Amino acid sequence: MNFKLFFLCLMVSLIDCNAQSIPLYTGTYTDGDSQGIYQATFNTETGKLGHFKLAAKTQNPSYIAYSPNKKFIYAVGEGGEGTVSSFKVKENGTLEFLNTVSSNGGAPCHISINPAGDKAVVSNYVGGNVSLYEIKDDGTLNPAYQVFEYNTTKKTSHAHSAQFFKSNLFVSDLGMDALYIYILNNDGKTYDLVSSSSVSIQEKAGPRHFVITKDGNFIYNINEYASTITASKKEINGFLLIDHYSTLAKDYKGANSCADIHLSKNENYLYGSNRGENTIVVFKRNTLDGTLTQIQNIDVEGEWPRNFTIDPSGKFLLVANQKSNNISVFKINSENGTLSYLSSVKTPSPVCLMF
């Protein structure tokens, strides 16, 4: 046997294996066994998930977000009066704490970063408002420079998610059954409200999260209370309703609360999570008119799928099952978008997954 050739092949194999392994960060609730944000490794060829370790000890990081260059991670602190924290990603994958600022409202539940990496937006569920932050070059956060308030004397706001898209900022408000659309001002910093009714949401539907197609022509809201997805198409003066689609199997009769929503990498399929039915619903998407056709509801092999994500390769979907303390891994069929279960890994109170 040529041992030099053997060891060379072995080294190449190990390098390839390491190249296929990427970090996965998990946000959690810390009222049980969890201590904060965890890091694991995920193999984008085999779908294997493992090597969990505590990356940062912090309270209730229920939603986390990367900076565009992946040098920093930002986390809400969903406890007490609400906080937002910044961390630097170290070479070993652990996180170095940088600073914390107020979220300006109770129970912050979502954070996202703009493509330039210099702004963050945080949604406060109990506070019913949304806060905007400047991010400095060193990754730290300045105190909020703009706060949008939504509570009225007649209705209680529950801001649940927000996203930057080109010069717009979109905010989904579960309590007000509204999707707010803002436009960036000439100062490049502040935003003005354009509309709170551009998307037709059913009353008491509870819009939670949403996705926008890459071209900005279609938007899909997942509604927590109604267990539906609202599909809308962009028009000159807003968005035109396409339809409301149930996320549940026809024979399911129990209680349910929808949570998260994502498009496949090629945008041909749409996925949503059902807490109660404990499934991921899969829709085939007509890319021309935006309509949806339900093709699968698959058991998440756990309980209460609050959040899920699709890996960068687009070949796998991972689900954070909050109440059963596990992350389930599914293979995505590249030909028809359906899911097949691969494996499950135990981890305390996972509620947000991020590649």
Features:
355 residues, mainly beta, 4-stranded antiparallel sheet, 1 helix, EC 3.1.1.-, hydrolase activity, hydrolase, Lactonase family protein
Structural account:
Strands 3-2-1-28 form a 4-stranded antiparallel beta sheet. With 355 residues, it is mainly beta. The protein has one helix at 3-20, and strands spanning 21-28, 36-43, 49-57, 64-66, 72-77, 83-89, 95-102, 108-113, 119-124, 129-134, 146-149, 159-165, 168-173, 178-184, 191-195, 207-212, 218-223, 228-235, 238-246, 257-263, 269-275, 279-285, 292-299, 305-310, 316-321, 326-332, 339-346, 350-354. Residues 5-17 have low confidence and may be disordered. The protein starts with a helix and ends with a strand. Its EC number is 3.1.1.-. Keywords: Carbohydrate metabolism, Glucose metabolism, Hydrolase, Signal. InterPro entries: Cycloisomerase_2, Haem_d1_sf, Lactonase_7-beta_prop, WD40/YVTN_repeat-like_dom_sf.
Kindly summarize this structure in a few lines.
With 355 residues, the protein is mainly beta.
Rg over C-alpha atoms, rounded to the nearest angstrom? 20 Å
Structural class: mainly beta
Strand content: over 45%
User: What's the pLDDT, averaged over the residues?
Assistant: 95
Count of individual helical segments: 1
- Poorly predicted parts: 5-17
Distance between the first and last residues' Cα: 41 Å
Please outline the major beta sheet.
4 strands, antiparallel
Strand order of the largest sheet: 3-2-1-28
Order of helices and strands: HEEEEEEEEEEEEEEEEEEEEEEEEEEEE
